[in-house]
């Protein structure tokens, strides 16, 4: 992208300074680093942890010791007392728990003022002669039990141990010695107080794996499984769990040992929006025995369940979800009540819940962690007047597809209970599930959570991670942001994080190539998740539908997507040989299976659609496409079988399902074959036409390729294909020397996948007859009916043994002085296509500006209006004067009405009373406001989230052919513009906008 002007208004430097200032990371106090051996010359350094430390500290100590042994083969001792004589030791303890830490504090050898009384904060420093007989000690001091555990496991991080050492088989690299560079540092407190995972939709992965492979003695997700999950969470510095809660899983508190295990690992237990008061309604409410799940008619029985759970969890760290929804993620069962009556009933439910918390826990409700989750219809209740106590955390939710529905208003940001976010990286529901692979773009996660952090919604962040696998990277990104969001002040922070993550796991020499592979993977998934490739929907489940990807226009976007996916999976296979043997399993789990699986799912359906199209035209190649589709389906099965049975002798058996819920998208696709014809004949199909070339009229006017434009240096394709059985040799003969063909002869046959060939027709523009120079384009002419003085015609003859067919080639080749060295966009066949990040000029607003987010959006760079705190501006006069503006130069060969189509990411308003708007205008016309806001779970919203795109349009007048300027202004902060299409009547339906029409003169 080469933008020509970035214009500065007088206040821009101040704006930039304030914007930068808001992102300065929290400082970490430190001094000079010094080497501290963990294992050296065959000796290991012991770890001192006193016996009365909380259980999680001992767990972390044993995890660290195990890590050292996995790296070096030597296991450090964990001891309780300070040795009488030792060169060096590690001392880890919690303030008020460890007598050795207390002694160091009393003797003023350590200063705990930076962490005392703080949430999950610790210090690490090396002391010389801390105790008699000890020459040196690495001291880890935690403000609380989790802080001490995190501090111990920070050593594992420094040793290069991945959080995924067990969960993704990231085998620690062997070393004979471990020497760490240490300095005096203070860590924490975290950006987000409660940071955790929601284990959800576990029916096809986590639950069957736990029940039948990992923990058959329990036959469910029990304490052994949760211990491994909690180990992962400790390594990720996560502290909160919403346990698995589907009906296939026994309720968390009904399995002996689950609650105790959570407490041992210092994991706070909460529950989702449909599990009030830590109660799993799916499993714990028996309607036959307990009556209806209705508070207006059965409150006493419901309160008994709530009371029992509060008593059961009295001594555990818990977060109580207050309020009430229906059973299993459904609206409250109160169909006979009005919305206002439901609101009053819900307020009574909350009041009763808080009363029982105070009574059973013997403390004020305001001191007991509680969360209210306005999910789906409950958000409507809140927006229409539902009162939530000020000390309760309000947990905003996304729309299940990664776009947060609402954030805190400036007033709500002052609430004592603060706010949080419940965010999906996996989802079961309408318009379609995505439960198979990890396909949410990391830059989207960053943008939405960064937005939440900027609006002070950072008391609690929970990620719906499905079965944990294969969500590994997005889980780590989410938790790292929650731990220190200030380290993610810019979107490129995410790219750097991904690169480091991959480099740490697979060796630095591969990190850049791997990073690009994964960015390409997320980009293609963003444009259409693999689970959505059948164009089917759920609730109700529909059969596969026709694809929206065009095969006949804009270079064949369906085949282009197929090529992109195939090339990406090929790169993975090539790179696999460079991965060390001890990381091959990790590579398969973290890179190979997700990329290859998504590629194969795309191949399965894209070849299916190619099969249908080819069969309609009678192409013999329909058979080869059917076979390719079937091969992709079978290969998905092979890859999944290896995941379950091949890794570590079946370690992950039953963890990976290739068909969650057995939805139609996962099925073996059908296929069509043309009617058999014994006689072989040659068929031709041109770009832009649904039907093949009419051979009964060899010189038909319709047998003409789309007009090619010198200012775009574009090309078009011709498909040469076999109909019937046999072999046909063909030759393509350009009738003018300026017509260039990618292939000029070949053979089509029914064997060896040679049923068709694609020829790309391009132009040698230096050889095209020169047209006259002029200052102006043709006034008011339809671009499809170009005057002879601006057009050059030619043809290509396709010759076989017994047939000659002529295909017309027309080029637009005038010489307009005004386009000499032009850097803007030009009209192509009745439209202008622009990527939002390819602006000509960018003007800051009074208190805002457009900022790029690279790697996000269809274009690969969206423009985001920031800061989020900026005021909305909707008055047309003020828009021109005060709003930040993006400006694009474009050139048309026509005049008349135009439809300005703007594609944005389908985000939601920041909060009630806001919207998602920008304004557009051509030249000096008045700004026209367009709004991307959707209502509820409307059909428009469904299509938007399936495509990760919202498109709105505004009419404009192109007064005359020639140079023009398109301007886009911010109306609301947070709007993200991706692509623009100026349709002068020539655009035909396609899934994406046509490729950019940037002038290439």
TrEMBL record:
The yes or no answer to whether the keyword Nucleus is present is: no
Q: Source organism's superkingdom?
A: Bacteria
Biological process (GO) annotations held by this record are: carbohydrate metabolic process
| KW Acetylation (keyword) present | no
Give the matching Pfam families. GH115_C (PF17829), Glyco_hydro_115 (PF15979)
Report keywords, A-Z.
Answer: Hydrolase
Looking at the record, the residues that make up the Gylcosyl hydrolase 115 C-terminal domain are 824-996
InterPro entries in UniProt: GH115, GH115_C, GH115_sf, Hex-like_dom2
Cite a single GO MF annotation.
Answer: hydrolase activity
Write the protein's name: Gylcosyl hydrolase 115 C-terminal domain-containing protein
Which taxonomic lineage is given here?
Bacteria, Pseudomonadati, Bacteroidota, Bacteroidia, Marinilabiliales
């Amino acid at each position: 992208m080469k933008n020509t002007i970035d214009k500065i208004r007088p206040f821009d430097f101040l704006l930039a300074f304030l914007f930068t200032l808001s992102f300065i990371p929290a400082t970490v106090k430190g001094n000079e680093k010094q080497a501290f051996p963990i294992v050296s010359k065959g000796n290991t350094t012991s770890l001192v942890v006193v016996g009365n430390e909380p259980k999680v500290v001992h767990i972390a100590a044993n995890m660290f010791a195990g890590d050292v042994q996995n790296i070096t083969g030597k296991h450090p001792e964990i001891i309780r007392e300070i040795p009488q004589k030792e060169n060096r030791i590690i001392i880890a303890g919690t303030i008020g728990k460890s007598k050795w830490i207390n002694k160091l504090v009393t003797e003023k050898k350590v200063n705990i003022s930076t962490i005392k009384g703080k949430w999950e904060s610790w210090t690490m420093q090396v002391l010389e002669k801390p105790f008699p007989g000890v020459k040196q000690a690495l001291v880890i001091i935690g403000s609380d039990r989790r802080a001490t555990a995190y501090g111990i496991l920070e050593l594992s991080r420094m040793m290069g141990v991945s959080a995924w050492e067990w969960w993704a088989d990231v085998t620690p690299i062997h070393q004979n010695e471990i020497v760490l560079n240490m300095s005096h540092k203070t860590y924490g407190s975290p950006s987000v107080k409660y940071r955790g995972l929601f284990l959800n939709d576990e029916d096809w992965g986590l639950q069957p794996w736990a029940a039948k492979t990992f923990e058959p003695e329990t036959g469910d997700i029990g304490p052994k499984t949760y211990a491994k999950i909690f180990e992962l969470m400790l390594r990720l510095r996560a502290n909160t769990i919403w346990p698995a809660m589907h009906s296939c899983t026994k309720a968390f508190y009904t399995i002996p040992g689950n609650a105790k295990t959570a407490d041992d690992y210092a994991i706070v237990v909460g529950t989702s929006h449909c599990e009030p008061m830590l109660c799993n309604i799916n499993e714990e409410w028996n309607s036959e025995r307990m009556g209806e799940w209705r508070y207006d008619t059965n409150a006493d029985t419901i309160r008994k369940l709530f009371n029992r759970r509060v008593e059961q969890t009295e001594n555990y760290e818990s977060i109580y979800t207050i309020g009430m929804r229906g059973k299993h993620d459904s609206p409250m069962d109160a169909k006979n009540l009005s919305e206002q009556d439901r609101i009053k009933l819900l307020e009574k439910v909350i009041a009763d819940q808080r009363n029982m918390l105070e009574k059973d826990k013997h403390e004020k409700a305001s001191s007991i962690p509680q969360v209210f989750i306005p999910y789906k219809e409950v958000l409507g209740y809140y927006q229409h007047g539902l009162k939530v106590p000020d000390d309760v955390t309000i947990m905003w939710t996304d729309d299940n597809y990664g776009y947060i529905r609402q954030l805190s208003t400036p007033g709500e940001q002052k609430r004592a209970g603060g706010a949080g976010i419940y965010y999906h990286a996996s989802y079961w529901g309408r318009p379609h599930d995505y439960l198979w692979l990890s396909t949410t773009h990391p830059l989207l996660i960053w943008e939405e959570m960064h937005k939440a952090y900027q609006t002070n919604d950072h008391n609690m962040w929970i990620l719906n991670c499905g079965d944990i696998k294969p969500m590994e990277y997005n889980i780590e990104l989410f938790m790292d942001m929650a731990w220190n969001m200030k380290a993610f002040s810019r979107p490129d922070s995410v790219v750097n994080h991904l690169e480091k993550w991959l480099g740490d796991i697979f060796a630095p020499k591969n990190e850049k190539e791997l990073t690009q592979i994964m960015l390409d993977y997320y980009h293609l998934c963003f444009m259409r998740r693999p689970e959505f490739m059948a164009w089917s929907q759920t609730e109700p489940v529909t059969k596969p539908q026709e694809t929206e990807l065009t095969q006949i226009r804009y270079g064949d976007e369906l085949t282009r997507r197929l090529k992109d996916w195939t090339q990406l999976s090929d790169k993975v296979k090539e790179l696999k040989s460079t991965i060390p043997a001890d990381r091959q399993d990790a590579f398969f789990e973290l890179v190979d299976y997700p990329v290859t699986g998504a590629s194969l799912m795309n191949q399965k359906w894209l070849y299916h659609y190619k099969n249908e199209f080819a069969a309609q035209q009678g192409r013999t190649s329909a058979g080869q496409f059917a076979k390719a589709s079937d091969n992709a389906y079978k290969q998905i099965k092979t890859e999944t079988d290896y995941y379950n049975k091949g890794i570590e002798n079946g370690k992950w058996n039953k963890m990976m399902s290739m068909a969650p819920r057995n939805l139609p998208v996962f099925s073996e696709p059908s296929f069509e074959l043309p009617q058999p014809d014994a006689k072989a004949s040659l068929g031709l199909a041109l770009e832009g036409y649904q039907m093949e070339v009419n051979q009964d009229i060899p010189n038909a006017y319709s047998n003409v390729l789309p007009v090619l434009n010198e200012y775009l240096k574009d090309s078009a394709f011709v498909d040469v294909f076999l109909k019937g059985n046999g072999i046909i040799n063909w030759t393509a003969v350009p009738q003018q020397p300026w017509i260039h063909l990618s292939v000029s002869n070949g053979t089509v046959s029914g064997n060896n996948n040679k049923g068709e060939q694609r020829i790309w027709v391009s132009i040698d523009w230096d050889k095209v007859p020169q047209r006259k120079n002029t200052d102006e384009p043709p006034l008011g002419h339809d671009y499809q009916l170009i005057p002879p003085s601006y057009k050059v015609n030619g043809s290509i003859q396709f010759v076989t043994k017994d047939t000659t067919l002529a295909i017309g080639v027309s080029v637009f080749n005038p010489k307009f002085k005004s386009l000499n060295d032009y850097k803007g966009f030009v009209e192509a066949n009745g439209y202008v296509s622009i990527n939002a990040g390819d602006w000509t000029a960018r003007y800051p607003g009074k208190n805002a500006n457009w900022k790029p987010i690279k790697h996000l959006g269809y274009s690969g760079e969206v423009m985001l209006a920031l800061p989020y705190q900026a005021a909305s501006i909707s008055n047309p006069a003020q828009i021109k004067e005060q709003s930040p503006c993006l400006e694009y130069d474009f050139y048309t060969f026509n005049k008349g009405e135009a439809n300005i189509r703007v594609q944005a990411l389908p985000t939601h308003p920041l909060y009630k009373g806001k919207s998602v708007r920008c304004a557009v205008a051509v030249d000096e016309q008045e700004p026209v406001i367009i709004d991307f806001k959707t209502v509820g779970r409307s059909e428009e919203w469904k299509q938007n989230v399936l495509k990760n795109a919202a498109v709105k349009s505004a009419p404009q007048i192109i007064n005359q052919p020639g140079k023009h300027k398109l301007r886009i202004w911010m109306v609301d902060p947070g709007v993200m513009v991706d692509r623009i299409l100026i349709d002068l009547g020539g655009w035909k339906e396609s899934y994406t906008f046509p490729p950019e029409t940037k002038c290439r003169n």
